[in-house]
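idk why but the lab printer keeps eating my pages so im just putting this in chat instead. protein + NAI:
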Amino acid sequence: MNSDISANHSHWKLNFDDHNIAWLHLDMADSTVNLLSGAVLEELRSVLDELENYSPQGVVILSDKQAGFIFGADIKEFLELDDITQSQPFLDRGHEIMDKLAAMTCPTVSMVKGMCLGGGMELSLACDYIVATDDASTRLGLPEIKLGIHPGYGGTARSIQRCGPLPAMDIMLSGRAIPARTAKKIGLIDDCVPERQLQPAAISYVLEAPKRKRPPFVQRLLNNRLLRPLVATQMRKQVARKARPEHYPAPYNLIDLWQKYADDPKRMLKEEAISVATLATTETAHNLVRVFFLQEQLKSQGKQVEFKPSHVHVIGGGIMGGDIASWCAIQGYRVTVEDQDPGRLAQTMKRAQAAFKKKYKRDRRAIIATGDRLIPDIKGHGVRRADIIIEAIFENADVKRELYQSIEPRMKADAILATNTSSIRLEDLSSSLHTPGRLVGLHFFNPVAKMPLVEIIRGNETDEDVVQKALAFGRSIAKLPLPVKSSPGFLVNRILMPYLLEAVTMVGEGVPPEVVDKAATDFGMPMGPIELADTVGLDICKSVAEILSEALDMPLPDKLSVMADANKLGKKSGQGFYQYRNGKAVKNKDAPYADVQTVQDRLVMRLLNESTACLRENIVASDDLVDAGVIFGTGFAPFRGGPIHYIRDAGTQKLAERMDELKQAYGDRFKSDTAWAGL
Ligand code: NAI
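predcted complex ->
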């Protein structure tokens, strides 16, 4: 390639080859990844203007970054969009530039290697052709919905035009990133090829400019004006199972947009910009952007040290240990799993196989390779080899201490020992070790494969280096590691417990469980507290509650003991607060109760108050980390941005007054924590 003409550009480089094809490289300045920031877009506008003078044979857009193609728009810029007078011009500018690219008279090709998301995907869709590498690192998607908006740079109309409404809406509504092969199959891209053939493929698309395939007949039919209302109703129903319009308006806006304008792509583009300009200024979008950054903050934990264990050993192959072991194997680690009970170990291996099949579907090679990495180890040979040992045996301090004593002499000198205990103080466990500094808490949540958070518990004696290694390990297994002080209940269970206990108290007072649960889901919790308690198991709830109630002076409602003592343990015994049929709670939808608002306030206030207490006691290092822990550990309504953020948003004074009212009516457990005043 020759003739570089990009001397005065900071982000884009342009050169021409012997075919007079313009190669337009994006290499965003001062960044390891490419983002479509305002500056990058403005420069693209001037490069496209410039290109008109050269009458190229075609244009190929590519990335010069190792990290991938384009990760999307610069989300930080979103935070500055407070009202429509700011957001509308922001969206309009993006549209103008994408339209300019789409209107080029020569063939344009997006040549994708690595991640191609959001704005990057929309830029690709504005090109005539998209070719991508077929390896696992290349994924394409339109994840805007996760930020409370939908595609806003022409991606809605253009993705639908390319692959038809069902696949396009599915990608936009789920926000998931798909491999290149799937993208090719559904028509989102034109070709996927091995990396060595990527450039020749791009050149051939420019030179041959083949006619683009239309979406299949059925997809075109579904775009028909008469059918759209029916399909849209189905889509709304599906979305409603996961998100309510008052909490998450974006998916509903997207469906409306398609239903109204699908046969007029130009109008759809215009309305898309208006819709996103409005959504971008909503509280939901701002809070979801906040959640995105909280997630990034957790992901960046554990970057201080290099820790790449070559072997992981898990002791205790029960509910938690078994799932932790198979999760680590999925993440690429060689894992031995030990249990004193051979029958239990056999069950664990069976469960792991099922998990691998579920994950890899028909990819037998991946199933076999992952299965090979997970080794049952009844005698505990893995202890000698492991760089990290994860203990997940019974929740009994004596049994755990005894185990530590017996394995320590066989452990590598620098191996770390991590316990999954949910309620025992680390200091009470480390006393049996010669080197207590090597014990750290690695508190996973149930179900391991679904819950993104892992609390990294720093005991009084834990070495800082061991904490850093545990954080790095958490990160390496694709979890969000949160450093937490060793204290009863750590962060998540401590904050969850008063909320659960309040729920049980209300049921004891005669409020139907359905009403309690609905009050919580109306607030935005993913599952009501009563159903959650039934799912965790009322015996487990009771034992954790007993430990916490003693440590934190929290009264235990009688109802919990009554249920547990009557062996009504919840989902696992078929009867708890609800009855279970085929694993599903049988609920009375018409359960009567008048004052739902008070029910909701009683639940939420206790959760908020405990969050404030954790902040005061520095259980985690900052208010952002309290919010992150509660969102990723309990599912706390992400669109509200976390408990501390919510208190500030709703008004500290106003909520404190409500707390006072509840204290008058229900007692001292509603006494505002002293930290409220400082928020
Ligand atoms: P579990 O009862 O399902 O499994 C414990 C396993 O450890 C059993 O298979 C048992 O045979 C094995 N075991 C006991 N002593 C052993 C020893 N000395 N050597 C080898 N194997 C031994 O228990 P679960 O629920 O998996 O809990 C394990 C740990 O994880 C506990 O510390 C618990 O507090 C914690 N945890 C539990 C959560 C849950 O939802 N179940 C959530 C988070 C943490």
